[in-house]
Amino acid sequence: MTVKELAETDIFSPVTLPCGGREISGVYIGDLLSWVMGRASSGQAWITIMSNVNILAVASLADTSCIILAEGVTLEQEIIDTAREKEINILKSEKSIYDIAVFLSKII
Amino acid sequence: MKELSLNILDIVENSVKAGAALTEISVVEEGDTLTLTITDDGCGMTEEVLKSVTDPFYTTRTTRKVGMGIPLLKLEAELTGGELNIVSRHITEHPLDHGTTVTAVFMKNHIDFTPLGDLVSTIITLIQGHPDTDFRFVHKTEKFEVVLDTRQLREVLEGVPLNTYEVIKWIEEYIKDQYIN
After folding, report:
1. Which of residues 4-43 of A touch B (CB under 8 A)?
2. Residue in chain B lying closest to A60 (CA)
3. Is the minimum CB–CB distance between A54 and chain B shorter than 8 Å?
4. Is the pTM of this model over 0.90?
5. Ranges of chain B with pLDDT below 70
6. B6 at the A interface (CB within 8 A)?
7. Would you say A49 and A70 are in contact if contact means Cβ atoms under 8 Å apart?
8. In this complex, do A60 and B57 lie within 8 Å of one another by their Cβ atoms?
């Protein structure tokens, strides 16, 4: 499934989608950025509640297919602009991390 | 990072790469605050570099396009209601007193405060990895003050490298003893 296809499902809406065609290879969940940086792998969708600009760098380093902001977390406009510039896909959802993970396990 | 001591390792590596002869690592706990200060006499940073150093997409490494040491430390300090400050004097403008000081203030009682971790192992790792560089380590609380200065050790050791097994073991015990007493 691609990031764009995921963004079109009921529980997600896109924040930035510069590379919507990227295939999602799996899922990683975590909020401790240094931990995620070393463990998330290329192509995974990364679910987090962190909203600091550093998440963009972590997503870029780990080469995740997209960041999924869970539990209604929002980003400042400046961070959204940087994400577009760095070509990082971001989706958001009102659902809990657990609900998102359960949902993804059924469709990926 | 999972422990503050891992952040210290990361930040001090920057000092060593900047050619520091002496790097001072100080952890001072006073009331609700914990202040981490890392001061080196390395080449320092230009104002332009200093401005971009908290930007996670900046790095001094060429192998990757983002450098996360300072941005993560800043985030962790701010998560507790603290802050991070950097002062730097570049060698071209300050040929005699160049270097960088990174200061991170944490609110110890905040629920998101990162545990300090194993400071002794961190210091030992640094000395082992950089035996030709000097380190001064201070950990001060209201109850104790731990100090290690490799310059003083060098005087006594008369040329024996600091990363010799027996020396490293001795340093480790020396620091640990100060924590107990």
Report:
1. 32-35, 37
2. B66
3. yes
4. no
5. 59-67
6. yes
7. yes
8. yes
**Are A60 and B1 within 8 A, CB to CB?**
no
Q: How far apart are CA B115 and CA B3, in angstroms?
A: 5
Determine whether B142 is exposed, middle or buried from the number of CB atoms within 10 Å of its CB (0-12, 13-18, 19+): exposed
Cβ atoms of residues B143 and B26 within 8 Å: no
ipTM for this model: 0.79
Of B1, B2, B68, the CB nearest to A57: B68
Smallest CA–CA distance from B70 into chain A, residue: A54
User: Of A35, A95, A91, which is closest to residue A66 (Cα–Cα)?
Assistant: A91
The C-alpha atoms of residue A103 and residue A68 are separated, in whole angstroms, by: 13
Confidence of residue A106 (pLDDT cuts 50, 70, 90): very high
Nearest residue of B to residue A32, measured between CA atoms: B1
pLDDT for position B53: 87
CA nearest to B7 within chain A: A34
Q: Is A47 helix (H, G, I), strand (E, B) or coil?
A: strand
Class for the domain spanning A3-107: alpha beta
Q: Nearest Cβ partner of B68 from A32, A37, A86?
A: A37
Superfamily for the B4-180 domain: Histidine kinase-like ATPase, C-terminal domain (3.30.565.10)
- Condensed to tens digits (0 to 9), the pLDDT of residues A43-62 reads 999 999 999 999 999 999 99
Domain boundaries, chain B: 4-180
Point out the least confidently predicted range of A64-73, A97-106, B43-52, B160-169: B43-52
Query: Cβ of B2 and A32 within 8 Å?
Result: yes
Element (H, E) at B75: helix B69-79
| Structural domain boundaries in chain A | 3-107
At A44 the three-state DSSP class reads: strand
